[in-house]
């Protein structure tokens, strides 16, 4: 039976996290965002805030949103340069658009992708990193590039692939989608 990935679930998950490891940013964010000029960024489903912190340290104006107040309490201790927001991304509405919208391993992603795409400014970038299908993760947290469902008229896909990376104790298999929103149709 799938989890109800609601605020209570995530608060309990993060309350039980041993020591809240201060992990570095996801390598796919560093690789893809490192190619972009800094601007306004959204870290959607920010968790402990490693990506938001890295973006802020590299000149981005960052809004980081997560459903869990428990994890944001720890994230706020990590960086005061980030605007930390506790909200459900399926109901939250940002003020304006972003030059970069990044999300890593969000759950219940299907209905969220359309919202994330709307929040990208023309000429901006959407970066989605998810667990590859077939991994030992709930179906709600695995994606394919097709799952994101971007309109070919409005987006140029720059990366759509599965990547394997080494981690302590083994390997992880990620699905990466990086796309640039065209400034106007037929651009």
Topology summary:
Blueprint: H1 7-15, H2 27-33, E1 40-44, H3 50-57, E2 61-66, H4 69-78, E3 83-86, E4 98-104, H5 110-118, E5 120-132, E6 142-143, H6 145-148, E7 155-167, E8 170-181
Parallel strand pairs: 1-2, 1-4, 2-3, 4-5, 5-6
Antiparallel strand pairs: 5-8, 7-8
Write up this protein.
With 187 residues, the chain is of the alpha/beta class. It has a single domain, classed as Rossmann fold (3-Layer(aba) Sandwich), CATH 3.40.50. The chain is 25% helix and 33% strand. It has six helices and eight strands. Strands 1, 2, 3, 4, 5, 6, 7 and 8 form an eight-stranded mixed β-sheet that branches. The longest helix has 10 residues. The mean pLDDT is 83. InterPro entries: Methyltransf_25, SAM-dependent_MTases_sf. Keywords: Methyltransferase, Transferase. It comes from Amycolatopsis echigonensis.
Brief sketch in words of this structure:
With 187 residues, this protein is α/β, with parallel strands linked by helices. The chain has 6 helices and 8 strands, in the order ααβαβαββαββαββ.
Characteristics of this structure?
methyltransferase; Methyltransferase family protein; 187 residues; Methyltransf_25; 6 helices; globular; 8 strands; Rossmann fold; alpha/beta; 8-stranded mixed sheet
């Amino acid at each position: 039976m799938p989890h109800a990935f609601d605020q209570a679930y995530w608060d309990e998950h993060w309350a039980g996290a041993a020591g809240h490891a201060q992990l570095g940013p996801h390598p796919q964010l560093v690789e893809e965002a490192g190619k972009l000029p800094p601007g306004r960024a959204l870290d959607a489903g920010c968790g402990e805030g490693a990506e938001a912190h890295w973006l802020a340290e590299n000149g981005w104006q960052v809004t980081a949103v997560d459903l869990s107040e428990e994890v944001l309490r720890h994230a706020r201790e990590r960086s005061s340069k980030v605007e930390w927001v506790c909200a459900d991304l399926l109901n939250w509405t940002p003020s304006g658009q972003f030059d970069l919208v990044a999300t890593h391993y969000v759950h219940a992603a299907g209905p969220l992708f359309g919202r994330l795409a709307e929040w990208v400014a023309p000429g901006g970038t959407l970066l989605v990193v998810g667990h590859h299908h077939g991994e030992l993760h709930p179906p709600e947290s695995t994606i394919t590039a097709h799952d994101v469902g971007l309109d070919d008229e409005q987006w140029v896909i720059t990366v759509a692939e599965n990547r394997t990376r080494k981690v302590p104790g083994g390997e992880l298999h990620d699905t990466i989608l990086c796309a640039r929103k065209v400034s106007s149709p037929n651009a």
